[in-house]
Amino acid sequence: MRKMHVAMPASLLMCLSGCQPQEADNPVENNSSSVPDDTPTPVARLNADDLVRVCKAGQAFTVGRSIEGMAASLSTDGLVRLSYTRDDGKHFDYDCMVRGDVIRTRMIDEGGPGTGPGAWSGRGSTTTFSALTPTSVHIKDVYFDGSVDEGTIEF
Q1: How far apart are CA 144 and CA 78, in angstroms?
Q2: Does 103 fall in a domain?
Q3: Is the dihedral of CA 74, 80, 81, 83 positive or negative?
Q4: Residue 5 lies in a domain
Q5: Does residue 58 belong to any structural domain of this protein?
Q6: What is the pLDDT of residue 42?
Q7: Domain count for the chain
Q8: CA distances from 25 to 2, 33, 78 (A)
Q9: What is the pLDDT of residues 83-133, one digit of tens each?
């Protein structure tokens, strides 16, 4: 009888909770410099050089830039800081991190000088990499509507 008493409240709790965790309809964007809990952490299986190459290739592919014009540096916390200047002279900075095969970025000072990092990418599309070789990496963007854009970036 004691087992039944313990099991019944647990199953009642599961039914009351809807048996699945629910997400908020309007998630709050985190614009602080700390990494939010739902963002990926840097992947350990890539060495530092590969991590920088994957981040550069992913961002170059996503924004339609040449990889040669993109500067990158690895921070001590495993983020890659990317920067480039467009042909019109406008400068851009991004943080990049990789989890598994997923590349995530966030723009720095998107809201104007001194506003800090913006929200992490991945809410409208997902960027992944595959076929990492010493001379190339394959990048794939899958958009919220199911459309796909993919290509190989050569180093």
Answers
A1: 28
A2: yes
A3: positive
A4: no
A5: yes
A6: 45
A7: 1
A8: 40, 24, 31
A9: 999 999 999 999 999 999 999 999 999 889 999 999 999 888 999 999 899
